[in-house]
Amino acid sequence: MRLAPIAAAILLSLLPLRAEPGPQYRDAKSQAMGRTGAASSRGAGALFLNPAALGRENRGRLGLSLDLGVNPVLIDYASWAADNSEYLDDLDSLLARIDPVDNKWAPFSQSNILYGNWRGFAFAALSDSRYDLAVGKAVITPVFGIGAFSDLVLTAGRGFSGGKGSRFGVAFKYLYRLRFDRRLVGTTDEAWYKAKEKWEKPYDGWTGNVSKAKVAADIAGTSHGAGINLGVEKDLHPNWTAGLSLLDAPTVMDRQFLRPDLNVGIAYHAGVDWIPDLESEALANFDVQRFMIPGTPWFKQIKAGVALESRMKNRPVSYIALGLNDGYPNFGVRVGYILHLSYLYVAEEAGTYPGQEKLQFHKLALQLEI
Fold first, then answer.
1. Among 68, 154, 206, 326, fewest CB within 10 Å belongs to which?
2. 94 by DSSP, 3-state: which?
3. pLDDT digits (tens, 9 = 90+) for 10-58
């Protein structure tokens, strides 16, 4: 087990890889802390970041989490669409009335996960999707922009305790992906007619109109594959833990290997005795992530985050967290006992037409955990 991550790294250096990433899902607390957690994961969420953390789990948990994320541009679009609702089933008429947010991308995200863990074992069934929508003009011609990236991930894993504060873990996963690289589509693009047909299909109610933002998923290409996540963890001190994980090491998608991620992190954690009968812990993370693509410079991201988390009778009841993901700020808060409500703010840089743009997301999540 000690040699597994090293052996995987050597193997990956010999394989033909492509730059497409594996599943990018992180639980809400990890995202709030700048997408850190290679040395501080807990529960079934460790399957996606460092499965070695499962080696310290003795109690069982079963949960369901639903989250929805929008950005300010999408809110602008929603207001504009409400004013032009009579044209929602006529794309040509709708484009003729474009005005407020020309050529800006409006992302919409949705994640649903059913998970559980018990004595080192964990499983998760995840649907993690992001859709992009744009309505604007190319020179003087109205155009429609769409994109989709949606993963269905079924994963299960096990963590092991190696003694002296060391832990090891492995997770196996099946991956089904819908993908439509976002782009502006006009009448000379075959995708225009497919998207137009889906967009103009009659829908009733708010749910139906939301599905219009997902139109790219209806014409997206599909692929499937399987892969492995590996991880190790070590307690360096009662208050310090180090972790290393190799994600998608390897993961095969349609007979091609996806880009593996190497994550190295260190975490400081200390008990905070502020309120009787409430167990609180202060947590600070520092992570470095590298995308391993032989033959090209390794891309590096530096991440950091802090959090204050409280538990009652070993059940999480609240946290407040903030972090930096490669310089972009994140923030999150959660409250609840069995039923939890959380808010998450994340900022990132993503490619848009014609260049790069800083995107902001506001996410609300409802989580049931027993």
1. 206
2. helix
3. 554 555 555 678 898 999 999 999 999 999 998 999 999 999 999 987 7
State in Å, rounded, how far the first CA of the chain is from the last one: 32
Give residue 111's Cα distance to chain centre. Answer: 8
pTM: 0.86
Structure tokens at 41: 């994961």
With beta carbons less than 8 A apart as the criterion, state whether 256 and 16 touch: yes
Cα pseudo-dihedral 275, 331, 111, 62, rounded to 10: -20
How many angstroms separate the Cα of 24 from the Cα of each of 27, 71, 135, 247, 341?
10, 19, 27, 10, 22
Query: 254 by DSSP, 3-state: which?
Result: coil
- Count of all residues that appear for the chain in the document: 370
Is omega for the bond preceding 250 within 30 degrees of 0, making it cis?
A: yes
Residue 350 CA to residue 355 CA, distance in Å, equals 9
**Which tokens hold the place of 234?**
């070590």
Tell me if residue 334 falls in helix, strand or coil: strand
Tens-place pLDDT, residues 105-152 = 788 899 999 999 999 999 999 999 999 888 765 555 667 788 899 999
Q: Which residue ranges form the domains of the chain, and what is each CATH number?
A: 4-369 (2.40.160.40)
- CA pair distance 275, 278, nearest whole angstrom: 5
What would the pLDDT profile of 176-225 be if each residue is shown by its tens digit? 999 998 888 877 778 888 888 877 777 666 565 667 778 888 889 999 99
Amino acid identity at 199: W
